[in-house]
Amino acid sequence: MSLEWHGSAYASESTLHQISPYIGKMKTSMSKALITTFTNKNDTIYDPFSGSGNVALESWIAGRNVIACDLNPYAALITKAKLFPALSIEELLIKISNIDYFVNSTLHEIDLQEIPEWVRAFFNPKTLIEIIAWVKVLKRNRDIFLLSCLLGILHHQRPGFLSYPSSHAVPYLRDKKFPQNEYPEMYEYRPVRERIEKKVMRTLKRVPFLDVKLKRKCYQKDAVKFSPKEMVNAIITSPPYMKQLDYGRDNRLRLWFLGINDWKSLNTKISPSEKQFIILCRNCLERWKSVLVHNGLCILVIGDTFSSTYKMSLHELLIHIAVNEVKGYSLEWKHTESIPNIRRVRRNCVGSNTETIIVLRKK
């Protein structure tokens, strides 16, 4: 079997995928290839570790019903935003104008001395006050789409973003590369409204036909404890790489604006150790047997690393667990390929050099 997803998908994928950055996300062209190859129109696809929501959105685009969940509040938010987008730019601009009125009426209530110093370090004080006010109003309105757009422009060094010079997906200040005395314009006040307006237009620049009659659900749940109420034709997901990525630490600034003050505690749950990861996968594989239809598929995209406990590669271990320990699965197909450096959020970092796709069939 040969599936094609090589080359950059950035210029061809729906711009809804670009609503907000996320580390370790599955390539959209890979998601699309797996969905269209292994499932049929009107099937129901479940992604229990939805992350950036790539599988969820590509499933909807391909005419499938979608169930997604993720324990990470940031991941659940942007997945929901992709599954329930606001698609009229004109209506959004009117909404932004109305929200701006309420934002301006709450600015005086915000005391920056109550904000953690590490958060204040990223922003011009006037900009930070506006961001906090916008987040407050958007949360009150339960506006997940505009809130996701706002988080998508939270930090970077480009003019369309809101922070001092910083990296994009992972929040690290770049004040040594861009010292304030040499780049004063990068430390000036940045109005939120005009930037969120432009972000909305970028996000809706390229949107395919989306059948709103298809079922779409997204939950902020622990995949080990959660089961969809309906049966699913396929599970397509990429479990959190064991200690290869830190989903709490690397999303800590956006998580703070979502009300998560202790990202370290969250990180222990969403960035598991090897032992925790193996337990997680074993428990999930057991639970998923009651969710999948007969002959349904479980498709896992695994960042390859070596299990020091089991003395085998991670994908080999998961196949062993599914087929020999949990049982009820047979191996249908597997494929391994290298991960090019250009796909990494942190270039030249130590991590998985390859990833393997495992296709398991429920007996």
List keywords for this structure.
seven-stranded mixed sheet, Rossmann fold, 363 residues, two-stranded antiparallel ribbon, alpha/beta
Task: Summarize this structure briefly.
It is an enzyme of class 2 (transferase). The chain is α/β, with parallel strands linked by helices and 363 residues long.
What this model shows, in words?
The protein has 363 residues and is of the alpha/beta class. It folds into 2 domains: 15-85 and 208-362, Rossmann fold, CATH 3.40.50; 89-203, no CATH class. Helices cover 36% and strands 15% of the residues. The chain has a 7-stranded mixed beta sheet with strand order 3-2-1-4-5-9-8, with helices on both faces. A two-stranded antiparallel sheet has the order 6-7. Helix 7 packs across helix 8 and helix 11 packs across helix 12. The longest helix has 18 residues, at 89-106. The two termini are 21 Å apart. Residues 342-350 have low confidence and may be disordered.
